[in-house]
Amino acid sequence: MTGTRIRHKGAASATPTTVITSETIRKSGTRQIADLVNQMPALVISQSDQTSNANRDKDSLDTGHPGLNLLDLRGLGSKRTLVLINGRRHVPGAPGTSGVDISTIPNGLVERVEIITGGASAQYGADAVAGVVNFILKKDYQGLDAKLSYSNSTYGDMPSYDADFLWGKNFADGKANVTLFAYYGQSNGVVAGQDRPSTAYGNPWWYRPRGSTMNTILDDRHSFSYSPRAVVLLGSKPYVFNDDGTMRAPRLGSAGILPNTLDLTKNSVVGQLETNSGSEFGGRYDNWLLSVPNERFITHGTFGYQLTDNVRYFLEVDYATNSSHGEYGLWYEGGGNKLWDGNPFITPEIIAANGGQPFGGDGLTFVRQYPEFGKSRSNYRRDMYQVVTGFEGELPGLIGGHDWSWSTHFSYGKTKETIQDRNNTSNDRYLRALDAVMGPGGTPICWVNSDADTTNDDPKCVPLNPFKPVPQNVIDYLQYDSSKASTSLEQYVVSGYVTGGLFNLPGGEVQIALGGEFRSESNNIGARAEYDPNNPAFVADYGIIENPLKGRIDVSEIFGELSVPVLKDLPLIHRLSFESAVRVADYSTAGRTTAEKYGAQWAPVRDLRFRATYGKAVRAPNISEVFTASSISGQWLSDPCNYYNLPNRPDRTEYTAANCAAVMPANKNDYWLWLDVIKQGNPELKVETARTLTLGMVFQPRFLKNFTLTVDYYKIRMNDVISAIEPQTIINKCMDGATLDNPYCDLVVRDPATNNLVSVLKQNINLSRRRTSGVDVEVDYSFDLADLDLGSGSGRIGINSIFTRLIENKYTPDPDKPDAVTDTFGVFGFPELKGRTSITYSNGKLWAGWTARYFSGMRQTVTIKPETYTPYKTPSVTYHDFNLSYQLRPNLTIGGGFTNIFNKQPPRYPGAEAGGAYFGDEGWQAGVYDVIGRTGFINLRFTR
Prior knowledge:
The structure is a single chain. By secondary structure, this protein is mostly beta strands. The longest helix has 10 residues, at 727-736.
């Protein structure tokens, strides 16, 4: 029975559970099992190859980790979804995270996946607030199973190669078994924004015509900032610089300069200028990866030996390595940094175009990208080691003739992550190089080397002329590669339990499970030498500070489960049973916690069963939330009080204008600001509490063979939610509150003299409340076509459909204002309705399958409503996949198929057009949309 340690043969748990079989996994054609599991409606897109390029986990301080694949049940965050391997805890996939990297679990090794969608903290631990995903691996395997696979996008730019090998053998008269598995896969294609129609075709933006209250979408927007050469606005005319430093008129799109409401007499608005396709200006997502490349190698070995009739020894050994990298676009100047009169690179031609006038206190604003610098990137390599060993056995007739069983194990796991930055640009050095003056002999020099103060001199500084291609000596001054830093996480687990019968009731055997577990996790967070202020190699003007840190959390737990079958085979009581579970944990950081769960099942007749569960979960802060090394880095952020955001930001509130008036910044004309973002752990975090409820029914009519209908309502209520808010969201919510006296403003620093933004503190905090509810529906039916009088050899049809209808998804961000509730129902990532329907046909050697994945329309933010936005949400989207396999010989099968076979493109709606890649738009969850397009695969499988 899934969802419990109690071994009721043939019984079903009161907890809703979805099972994905090995056949479904094998024939899906997905390279990684995470891609298949994430199609289940109960899961919200978290981190995957299409979302991990510079991704920030929405609920933590975790940044980056390209190539990491995590699971997120109900959208409550990956740290509230417990992932188990063979019912046991597994080491997290990356230091500083709490989620297991699903990409280290290869498809060919999985026997089945159990998705337990009711809260399961009492059975399995605090991380299971939203539920459990349990991967059951093949064991005691006898034979050989090898597969070769190739896949690619129909654009031809994402070639992927995979090979796996599974071998097992029984020996010692069947008492022993050894099973070995190896997998190698690589996908080295680099697909950037300019490579797909949805991201190359400009950007859709919200636009409100003057005098109107309705916002509409302006599509196909190309900003002047996305230019490989400098652009300036002089005398109300835009100019682009040639490689020799002379100016010319830009090549615009057919719509000319957009928008046409700007005051072109101000050279500072050049960063706001746009045009449409056909121009020389690129797109917003150019050079950002839409899917990260990766290379993976995985090995797995098991050994089991039946020591006696009732005692078995087992050993599992795993090693996995994963290499990937993220690419973050080109360094660019968005207009926030200016040139001042006296700069030797302001030519007579520039001054003449400005009417012969100096620029004075306004300075000269320019915008451009710097393709000469190349793309910045971060290289990641993760190595995971896991050893599990233990004993399990039976105790026949232990209590009153009732059988018992037991299991105990020890596991050690370690994950090591190595990170290196490449092609990084120092913002401090960039500002110094840009601020040039004429030196002795008419040679340009950096201003810091010209003033009387010698303490700020930088002998290496080379002046930067932004109006010409950047020479190599300037690039060498501005750019750097960091050294490698290693961070590791180690996990020790000792666990054991016993389960068996106590006595009989009219409904059957009363069973209990009792156990205990000790777990220790330690983080050893490294720092790159150039970023560590205590390291001799520290370079202050790289603008990044990292501090190494060690932290450890220990937890001791005892747990118990009880199953009480009360009655059976009576009128209107075919079955009546109750179950309960409790877990008491003692954390070294959070103290003692208790989780409870109660369940009931009633089947009035054999065909119909009702089920219900109620649980209380207490989640202590995990190691990454408490022990995160302090770091300071820069990030481009926007002031909600600037010239554009104040009147146009979609999620502003009725309080924003008054709050901005109270702290109006002196610099309100620059949209993007380079600010310090300070990240650190929070040892003062309190525990989270949650209450979960499920109510459901299972219908399996005798008159319709192989048909099952399940309907389950779920409700989750969380208090003191631990969450890390993104810097841009912190700044926005500070200004959107009823007053400036709110917890978000405590995290924002403004200059007391100018009110300009200086820095933002990002750390985990306890928010007030979070609640979500909805209904899951699953239909499963299979039948022979012969039943329809189509002949005995006509084959078999299988139908499976799973849908989730979201009712609410609310959070209360301010603990002091419990009535200020935000409902993200229908926002990106949380559609009202989503589902997956698959139809399969099998006939001897032939198998074919068709899958449709559906998402109802979604909107960008909670403040977008039909009264003021048109269209206020995207249209619904359905993706179609097709798979086919044929057995060529008894031991040889060929398969193939397509994902997104109709090459469905993302909707033309702000934010949705980027699909799943994360481009700094804090809080947008558009990962449901496929930006890669149609992909095909072919594989060859050999068994013996």
